[in-house]
Amino acid sequence: MATRQVTVKDIAGRLRLHYTTVSKALRDHPDISPATKRRVLALAEELDYHPNSIAKNLKNQSTHTLGVIVPSIKNDFFSAVISGIEEVAYGREFNTVVCQSNESAEREAIHLRTLISNRVAGVLVSVAQTTTSGSGFRALQRQGIPLVFFDRVYDDIEADHVVVDDIGGARRVVEHLIERGYRTIAHAAGPPNTSIGRDRCRGYLDALKAHGLDGDEKWIVHGGFEEADGTAALGAFRSRGSMPDAIFAVNDPVARGIHAEVKRNGLAIPRDVAVAGFGDNRLSAYLDPPLTTVSQSPYEIGKTAAAMLLRRIDEPSHKCLCETEVIPTQLIVRKST
Amino acid sequence: MATRQVTVKDIAGRLRLHYTTVSKALRDHPDISPATKRRVLALAEELDYHPNSIAKNLKNQSTHTLGVIVPSIKNDFFSAVISGIEEVAYGREFNTVVCQSNESAEREAIHLRTLISNRVAGVLVSVAQTTTSGSGFRALQRQGIPLVFFDRVYDDIEADHVVVDDIGGARRVVEHLIERGYRTIAHAAGPPNTSIGRDRCRGYLDALKAHGLDGDEKWIVHGGFEEADGTAALGAFRSRGSMPDAIFAVNDPVARGIHAEVKRNGLAIPRDVAVAGFGDNRLSAYLDPPLTTVSQSPYEIGKTAAAMLLRRIDEPSHKCLCETEVIPTQLIVRKST
DNA sequence: CTGAAAGCGCTAACAG
DNA sequence: CTGTTAGCGCTTTCAG
């Protein structure tokens, strides 16, 4: 079993060649005669040779690996983004290592450190909810490792971004609520330290303002990104006295929490309260009534982000003329509004 | 930016120490005096030193990395398994690299190769649907890299397994159908070259037999694991003349395809046809009517599989006294039956 | 076309 | 306690 793994030297020895010759032959270097190449290749196959990329990477001072950090892969959105990233990476013969932060800033930092230690060629991050310091990202950049943020951005860092049009998407869905005739529109907002939390709230306020409805602070509740936060948000609205006509939630899970809690309170959707989300999770189409939401093409986001990162890797020259790609969103109207 | 990364030598130079001394200091080796350690640590911090794990791995001839290959991470089941794996790996300071085969045997083989080349410490695989050769797995084992299969097993390979009790779970759900009074029970089966396809079919047949119902070949249709396969299966049953009372699908997506198609045909669930699945996907609870299914604790599977693998890594001695862990399943009765 | 020598960054064994 | 030497497997440069 643990028979030492085959190296270029082993195959060189058998062939009475120098091991550098073998190394060149394996990489199809023009120096080497076709005949030798054939012999080398044949023996490599026979001996079950597998090149050691660790040694190769050490020598070359580079890896063909991209690091990806997401809050959680069990989340339609992120897993679709990852697929997009992998698709692009795969086409360029890059590997991908996926890490989950579980929304913990600490784990995120640890992952960042091991990615640095493993000298990945570049990193894609969607920031954890609890991250309040950019030092891990800065460390990455000090090592000259390109960084691209997607979806959840850390603002104080100069880096490329790929985001969805959160403001526009939020504005659009709130306008839709207004058009439908709802007037008291509440917002179950995300954590204010996240870009998407802030931007979606901004879009909400913009829409109200544009239509002459004033955004009353009382109709905004800040929470996290989970179903439980939706449940809590509804409780908060109820405790503030009267219920709103409609609630726009920062994302689909929160909307789902509200959706369930509204029904649990014996109210009808959308008759008593309309509910809208953001993100178009798979599940949302299956709720009863199905959820009105905003679709953000996650697969596109992943492909775009990976492409940006690879561009940086290819041309490390460009100083930070950071770019931001905004992926458009699409309103998906269903029965909940 | 691309200022060469800091190495032990750099910090040794500044401190007028030998670089091996620094290396030891950094790893808190007992040889080194506390005073020196402090100086080294302080300067390492100041210079923003990050150990190069590539070099370390090359030297040590080992990595702290586990490879995981799954068909697709955008699948509740697999993403939960991965979380379980990561949890255990993380606790032992192992990294995890996740690869998706997209059900393609070819991609699976490529991933296997790069995992070998990267000298991962061990590999966890859930086999792609189209895999018909075990040569990639055998190559892995020839390199002395421990392998654990979970959920979808490749039979011809001697390796540890973690599977759910597919036969028992299938038998249980079919018995439930029988108890409910259904008599003509069809099975939308999986590909016969997959272990879960075969085992769930076996459980189905066992249950029928135990209750004196004969398994008529006509009520079994083989297909894949996707929603579309469910749609197709229903078409097949209809074309065979009369409809069954109840259909047990190899997994939840297939059940969902059937569920939707039944409703599209204007039939009522469960009045006209009962539908049951396997896997307890998140979505299944949200269908109308919600789907009766079998829960297989994916998080447990992941933890168990990772623990088995780590045990192999710790003690490479054990020749292949391969073990199989069977994780119990649980019947989840909902309104669709 | 093939061979020799050097070195990537780190660790382990041994000497001082 | 600190330094020396050697080497992990590979690639690169320069000679033959």
TrEMBL record, chains A, B:
Q: Which residues form the HTH lacI-type domain?
A: 6-60
Record flagged with keyword Cell inner membrane? no
**Record keywords, A-Z:** DNA-binding, Transcription, Transcription regulation
Keyword check for Magnesium: no
Could you tell me which InterPro entries the record lists for this protein?
HTH_LacI (IPR000843), LacI/GalR-like_sensor (IPR046335), Lambda_DNA-bd_dom_sf (IPR010982), Peripla_BP_I (IPR028082)
Q: Name one GO molecular function term.
A: transcription cis-regulatory region binding
Gene3D superfamilies per the record?
3.40.50.2300, lambda repressor-like DNA-binding domains
Q: What is this protein called?
A: LacI family DNA-binding transcriptional regulator
**What is the species listed in this Swiss-Prot or TrEMBL entry?**
Anaerobaca lacustris
